[in-house]
Design brief:
The protein is built from 8 helices and 16 strands. The chain is of the alpha+beta class. The protein folds into 2 domains: about 5-180, 2-Layer Sandwich (Gyrase A, domain 2), CATH 3.30.1360; about 235-315, Aminomethyltransferase beta-barrel domains (Elongation Factor Tu (Ef-tu), domain 3), CATH 2.40.30. The strands form 3 sheets. The chain has a 6-stranded antiparallel barrel. The chain has a 5-stranded mixed β-sheet with strand order 8-9-7-1-10. Helix 1 packs across helix 7 (about 175-185). The mean pLDDT is about 95.
Length: about 325
């Protein structure tokens, strides 16, 4: 459920969210980075200890299996993935180890993720640094939603103490639904919501943050290179923002029309307190992606006027 107080904390102070929607895969072994380098879209081999990057794991046809966040530590590398996919992904990755010194395990039951987002996060983090070391927490500095942020990766039995400490420092615990509003305002697609197994990462704009065009081969690279070199990056549809004309919000899957022609679909829709209007993410045919393009959303209660919007909605 959306929390207005939680939203204000995320925008103006510190909001804290338990990321029950995320799972953790652990990869160990001396060859783990070079092995992952041949599987993932980003240049993970270039990560220093403590480094983090976004990436995607693709089929040979260039379609997405998942997106993920990669955190490289001295003794292991952690993959932050959708919770519902973690076990199957770990099994799938493990089957791809041959002679490499690499081991893969779903660590979701042993490691939980807690996010803190908001402009006051750096100060709160500094005050709690010694506490986090005592708790054995791994801290990921990342700002995916347009405000400063950190993710804590720690044992589940340490979560309550960590939350209590940060609440004592002024953070407000809020909900995943509230954080999702920031996600849409930031124009950031989520796998299993705005992306699925049919999505090309270029359609979702992942080339801007999750794909390296200078690294060596990885699964699905030939398709990505062909689109970029022969097609000059042109794909049939692209992720765009939508601004809705009324307070009504469409549902995921609702069609987007230009006149009588269906040219896309909505994948996420939220009410933005900052913009005081309904906004959403979705896909539109490449001929209709310019900001300001007028479209109609076909909803269960009738047509809804909308316009294509530039991303992010909130800088």
């Amino acid at each position: 459920m959306f929390s207005h107080e939680g939203y204000q904390a995320l925008r103006r102070g510190v909001g804290l969210v338990r990321r029950a929607d995320r799972g953790v895969i652990g990869v160990t072994g001396a060859d783990r980075l070079t092995w992952l380098q041949g599987l993932l879209t980003n240049d993970v081999a270039a990560l220093a200890v403590g480094g983090v990057c976004d990436a995607a794991y693709l089929t040979p046809q260039g379609r997405m299996i998942t997106d993920l966040r990669v955190l490289h530590l001295e003794d292991r590398t952690l993959l932050d993935v959708p919770a519902t996919l973690a076990a199957a992904l770990a099994t799938r990755l493990d089957a791809l180890i041959f002679s490499e010194d690499a081991q893969v395990a779903d660590r979701s039951s042993a490691l939980a993720i807690v996010d803190l987002h908001g402009p006051d996060v750096p100060a709160v983090h500094d005050r709690a640094m010694a506490f986090l070391v005592e708790q054995g927490a791994v801290v990921i500095s990342d700002s995916p939603f347009g405000v400063p942020g950190i993710s804590l990766v720690l044992a589940p039995d340490r979560v309550a103490d960590a939350i209590a400490r940060f609440v004592g420092e002024g953070a407000l615990e809020t909900t995943l639904a509230t954080l999702d509003v920031l996600r849409v305002e930031a124009g950031r697609p989520a796998f299993l919501i705005d992306m699925d197994e049919h999505t090309l990462p270029l359609e979702a704009g992942l080339d801007k943050r999750a794909i390296s065009f200078t690294k060596g081969c990885y699964v699905g690279q030939e398709v990505i290179v062909r689109v970029m070199q022969r097609g000059h990056g042109r794909v049939a549809k692209k992720l765009v923002g939508f601004s809705f004309a009324k307070g009504e919000l469409p549902k995921a899957g609702d069609g987007v029309l230009s006149g009588e022609r269906e040219i896309g679909r909505v994948t996420s829709a939220v009410w933005s307190p900052t913009l005081e209007t309904g906004i959403g993410l979705g896909y539109a045919h490449r001929d209709f992606v310019e900001a300001g393009t007028r479209v109609t959303i076909r909803t269960a209660s009738g047509p809804l006027d909308a316009a294509v919007a530039a991303l992010p909605f909130v800088a």
